[in-house]
Amino acid sequence: MEFSELIRTGQAQAELLRGPEVPPLRGTLCVTGHHLLLSPGAQATPDLWLLLLRSVDSIEKRVAGDSGTITLRCKDLRVLQLDIEGVEATMDIARSIEALSSLESVITSFPFFYRPKSLRLGDAWHCHPPESYYKRVARETNAWRLSEANEDFNLCPSYPRAVIVPRAVNDDVLARSARFRQGGRFPVLSYYHAPSGTALLRSSQPLTGPQKRRCAEDEELLRAVLAGARPGARGFIVDTRSVQAAKQARMTGGGTESKAAYLGWKRLHRPLERGRPLQESFVRLVEACGDLEQSMDRWLSRLEGCRWLSHVKETLSTACLAQMQPSNGGACILVHGTEGTDSTLLVTSLAQIILDPLSRTMAGFQELIEREWIQAGHPFQLRCAHSAFSHTRPKHEAPTFLLFLDCVWQLSRQFPLSLEFGEGMLLALFDHAYASPFGTFLCNSEKERCLCEVRTRTHSLWSGLNQPKEQRKLRNPLYVPNPSAIWPSVEPQSLRLWQGLFLRWTRPPEPSEVAWEKVWQIVTDQEKAEGSPPTVSASESQP
Amino acid sequence: MEFAELIKTPRVDNVVLHRPFYPAVEGTLCLTGHHLILSSRQDNTEELWLLHSNIDAIDKRFVGPLGTIIIKCKDFRIIQLDIPGMEECLNIASSIEALSTLDSITLMYPFFYRPMFEVIEDGWHSFLPEQEFELCSSATSEWRLSYVNKEFAVCSSYPPIVIVPKVIDDEALRKVAMFRHGGRFPVLSYYHKKNGMVIMRSGQPLTGTNGRRCKEDEKLINATLRAGKRGYIVDTRPLNVAQQARAKGGGFEQEAHYPQWRRIHKSIERYHILQESLIKLVEACNDQTHNMDRWLSKLEASNWLTHIKEILTTACLAAQCLDREGASILIHGTEGTDSTLQVTSLAQIILEPRSRTIRGFEALIEREWLQAGHPFQQRCAQSAYCNSRQKWESPVFLLFLDCVWQILRQFPCSFEFNENFLIMLFEHAYASQFGTFLGNNESERCKLKLQQKTMSLWSWVNRPSELSKFTNPLFEANNLVIWPSVAPQSLQLWEGIFLRWNRSSKYLDEAYEEMVNIIEYNKELQAKVNILRRQLAELETEDGMQESP
């Protein structure tokens, strides 16, 4: 196996410092193909300390005298310090970690080797197929159909094999429309809002170019959407770029829908930040959070300067806007930006959490992430290659998914009873998106996952998270199903820094966790005393 | 009654009331001597009873014959009344203005309020200094009660009874009083049972420009030190401010004259700077523009959280000197009635588990704020909406409550009371039907005969039906010292006070209730389990007895 070439030393004596309140750990340090191990030796607790090398974001080494210090900054924002005996050992270990943590190859990554005893391969990979969501839609309306036009990923490499499209258009129309949309991402159904009979769709930008090209099939597709909706329904196209940016996109072959070509559709522009500015915002925020000695003024102005909360606010506002129409009068909405794989998904997935009580259950939320992020082709591997500590220049990295999780956290803070999952779930998703023993967040699209045989050769995160012993950390003990839409307040005063994530490792052990732990204890005791199993998520009890 | 002269129009029909979280309601507006009442007559719940003394400022506007009065309350609520008829509107507005700014304390509502509830325990006698002293005297005999200030002659802002070192006689106290600002000689604030160290507080020493000294003062302070031990003097002013104070006759303790004491200067803001900070903060919270940058920079510019951080840092420092270094402390600023009390009372919250219980916290407020002579009347005369900048208003007490809230947020299981308790205290400090927060010190309260003529807030609060609203369901007595984090990231805006009227707390309240329900239900089940266990044990012993013969 090729790992052995990258591992330059067997082992060394080291001391690990994990933060202000945690006692240091001494023992033998070992680098393996995927992990950093510290075994504390016979006399101490037998617990082995383990770190997935993939989760190392940046590494810094210093030597003084005959010992060295390695500082590891992890993708989950933790900072670890290793004091190692021996200069050579330090250098060797540092180089090994550096090489192993930045391996590019997917199929040599840990998920392909992870074989826990409690799980069976292949479990939960079939939990959330597009067909199951289609069944839900089909119960409400017959205006939509499941198309397998993308069976071989020929129409659109970033779409899954099956997508939901208007029943009135055939696969040829889809093929033509795909050619008119960036990356082949023709408009598909994201969410059907049964109470108003309207739909939320997503796509990428149309390739109008400087000549304002048109595509009859693409127009037909959107006409069919309106025709299939409630009579008299209007359409809104939410472009997640500014008017100016959308116009500029024409020069590079992109563009936006012209009013004349799409009758019944009105275009709105809601600029959302993406790509590098978003990554920089994340980096600056984490930097500010790490400094505990600064003055209040400095902290607040850095919090303002990094603009992270502004991005949270803009994202939530756009999600609210996208939904304002269906529940109020009934309008269909198409969301797209440029590629339709980032801000578009932010808006469509958040809108569903706001509107759809099912997506606020544990099972429904997992289904939403699978359908609207993983299968919808958010390029996790590119976006989450590095986190906030990396020194390498960002290329495709962007914390889009983290921004989504932060917005969900804001919702959970404003509606503490309405979400079945708790902060623990959001933290787990953040951690696993950046480095995980599971295969769920590997690769950039379904096509790549098929090529790598991710489904058959790795374990699904969902089967890991849905084990009873994990669920306890992930569920919200106060959950009470709430059938109505939850409209968040998006005024700046209502939005907060997500301390649980950004200050997870820097603040002293959070005392409110003690309170949380206590509530949990009581709820569990209560369930035991009543002799009934914990309530399962509402979606499972659905007909 | 003279109120009648001030009320030009006692009632107006067809007035529309707009207020946060309620739909607009039309009804009859009535003015009484102490209340503004709006009744819709359809539904009793649709009513507004507002104390005039809760009104901080009013604005009036006219559109044609329709007048609008905007009432800004001291608890930061803003309500609007649409009044048909210009004359009525003007009359109402001028009446409200006159009634909400009555000069005479004896005309205030507490002197007219007759409680509708049964008084179980008279709050005026709930926290007597003698009882409080017993807590200290049971542990040490180094301190005594002094009645030197019985007639308020030695220090007008001190209570009649204070705790001083046993070895210092009343004659010496009189001399020390002459040497301290406002006569506030050093007195005991807190006795730390764990190691016998103490917190004292006082006014600044009147050293003046020529470095005056007072042998009795030095003797008093040194009397509190054990042999060979050092102490700390925490001056809540920065060094240059303390130095400037000498020009006005004030000053600070010179090292040469107090060799066993180390002086530490901290900078806690006071007076109008705090008031302006509050005004800016409340303005920012009410800002309707939907811009994150603007909100954060306004929050920063208000400096409110900076003040919180400074106060908490100083309190932690004092607590640290006492608990970790085993040194006694003397705390003072200029007058010793504001920042000094913030520090001494917060240090006790950190150090003393009893002050985190409801009764203990009430005792703390009584001892360290009311008896200690914080001038509530002056400081809480106006709140964040007032335009007329007077000199004496300052949200010193609100800052203290905010700091307590920050600690409570960080240690949610260590306090017997909840956030609502702090909010209630804030409201009553600014406008109340009870006499507790009237007057500026004990001397004034005695002259007003508050004990005889008004009801104590504690008489009302300490009834079981009220207490249940203020009890923290997560409370578990924690006998440890609790060290709050003062990193800027750990401190937050107190939404329960500052965004209370802008954000509906409906969902948060629901969550809170759900938690309370779960905890109550758990207690019931636990009781059931205990009964069953006992029955089981009984049955087992019966079995044993049957088998044994």
TrEMBL record, chain A:
Please give one Pfam family short name.
Myotub-related
Question: Which InterPro entries does the protein's record reference?
Answer: Myotubularin, Myotubularin-like_Pase_dom, PH-like_dom_sf, Prot-tyrosine_phosphatase-like
What are the residue boundaries of the Myotubularin phosphatase domain, all occurrences included? 124-502
Q: Which CDD domains match?
A: PTP-MTMR9 (cd14536)
Superkingdom? Eukaryota
Q: Which species is the source of this protein?
A: Catagonus wagneri (Chacoan peccary)
Stated name of the protein: Myotubularin phosphatase domain-containing protein
Tell me which GO cellular component terms the UniProt record holds: cytoplasm
Q: Which family does it belong to?
A: Belongs to the protein-tyrosine phosphatase family. Non-receptor class myotubularin subfamily.
What is a GO molecular function of this protein? protein phosphatase binding
- Which GO biological-process labels does this protein carry? negative regulation of autophagy; phosphatidylinositol dephosphorylation
From TrEMBL, chain B:
- GO biological process annotations for this chain's record? negative regulation of autophagy; phosphatidylinositol dephosphorylation; protein stabilization; regulation of phosphatidylinositol dephosphorylation
What keywords are annotated for this sequence in UniProt? Answer: Acetylation, Cell membrane, Cell projection, Coiled coil, Cytoplasm, Endoplasmic reticulum, Membrane
In the UniProt record, which is one GO cellular component term? endoplasmic reticulum
**Keyword Protein biosynthesis (UniProt):** no
Q: How does it sit in the membrane?
A: Peripheral membrane protein
Instruction: Report the locations given in the UniProt record.
Output: Cell projection, Ruffle membrane; Cytoplasm, Perinuclear region; Endoplasmic reticulum
Domain Myotubularin phosphatase span(s) in chain numbering: 123-498
Q: Which intervals of the chain form a coiled coil?
A: 508-542
Which Pfam families does the record cross-reference, listed alphabetically? Myotub-related, PH-GRAM_MTMR6-like
Q: Which GO terms describe its molecular function?
A: enzyme regulator activity; protein phosphatase binding
Membrane among keywords: yes
Where is it mainly found? Answer: membrane
* Xref: Gene3D superfamilies: Pleckstrin-homology domain (PH domain)/Phosphotyrosine-binding domain (PTB)
Q: Which residues cross the membrane?
A: none
Could you say which protein family the record assigns here? Belongs to the protein-tyrosine phosphatase family. Non-receptor class myotubularin subfamily.
Name the chain's protein: Myotubularin-related protein 9
